[in-house]
Design a protein that fits this description.
Layout: H1 4-17, H2 23-31, H3 33-41, H4 84-112, H5 118-145, H6 158-178, H7 181-188, H8 192-205, H9 208-233, H10 235-264
Helix pairs in contact: 1-10, 2-10, 4-5, 4-10, 7-8, 9-10
Length: 288
């Protein structure tokens, strides 16, 4: 079984050969107006780090600790702009679901060594990815509206700190148990429930599934301080550079994770690990 670095290198090489797919993490990162606004409005020196799991489309914001106050729902549209948000948020959810469906379906095709049809993948997988997009939105909506915790723009009371403290281990546990879910949707061609059950079963086995989860978390932890310094402290250059560069890195991470899930899941077709070199990969072309 290849190690995490080998898988990431393979994902990077595949990402460079399928550059059009980079547009999806770029667009989704650019849609996240809350984070861009927070970065541009910040005045001072900001240092930070993050850890994360490849739960969805990986963008630059997976690697950047964004300075902010309060709690927001990451739909790309600020909820405080009501009633405009009543229309814009549903539209953003639909657009994000469509892009994510086409992206993950195409990532699965690339991992299998097949030609991908982005539009066909949107049609095939829109429903399960709409569910996967909607669930975290609904889970965070009470926080954003102030039903629980500080709301959109308030401070952080002691009770909210307790909620956040309890929420962190819950999030980590859920991320571990279900990070393979979107990949299994497209690799197995099943619905959300069956994919979540498959991810849960893989998580209970531990072994490589746990090792990859920890490796990805450490990878994000290592990249995030540099990404945060560049994007937050030099925003006029760092934001566009981060959105584009983070898009390539994000596609590489998603490709690496998709191939890993295909390798460890007995119901998914995987490809042999002969080489990560573009000249020997199954998608390579011969020189004339």
């Amino acid at each position: 079984m290849p190690d995490f670095v080998t898988r990431l290198v393979d994902g990077w090489e595949r990402a460079l050969r399928h550059a059009p797919l980079v547009l999806v993490p770029i667009v989704l990162a650019a849609m996240d107006a809350n984070k861009i606004r927070s970065v541009l409005a910040f005045d001072g020196l900001h240092l930070g780090f993050k850890v994360g799991a490849p739960l969805s489309v990986v963008t630059v914001w997976q690697f950047v600790s964004v300075p902010k106050s309060g709690v927001s729902v990451d739909t790309g549209v600020p909820l405080e702009l009501l009633p405009f948000a009543a229309v814009s948020v549903p539209v953003a959810l639909v657009v994000q679901s469509a892009l994510t469906a086409g992206y993950f379906g195409s990532v699965a095709d690339v991992v299998r060594g097949q030609e991908y049809d982005f539009v066909a993948n949107v049609a095939a997988y829109f429903r399960p990815f709409f569910v996967l997009t909607l669930l975290p939105f609904l889970a965070l909506l009470p926080l954003a509206l102030g039903v629980v915790g500080p709301g959109l723009s308030g401070g952080v009371p002691a009770g909210a700190l307790a909620v956040v403290a309890l929420g962190i281990p819950v999030f980590v546990a859920l991320a571990y148990l279900f990070y393979a879910t979107p990949y299994l949707v497209v690799l197995r061609d099943v619905g959300v429930v069956d994919a979540a059950r498959g991810s849960y079963a893989l998580a209970l086995r531990g072994g490589p599934y746990l090792s990859y989860f920890l490796g990805f978390a450490l990878f994000v932890l290592a990249v995030s301080p540099v990404a945060t310094v560049v994007v937050v402290n030099v925003p006029l250059l760092g934001v566009p550079l981060g959105v584009v560069g983070g898009g390539v890195l994000g596609l590489a991470a998603n490709l690496a994770t998709a191939r890993f899930v295909a390798d460890v899941d007995p119901e998914s077709a995987s490809t042999a690990w002969e080489s990560v070199s573009p000249t020997t990969d199954e998608e390579s072309t011969t020189d004339e």
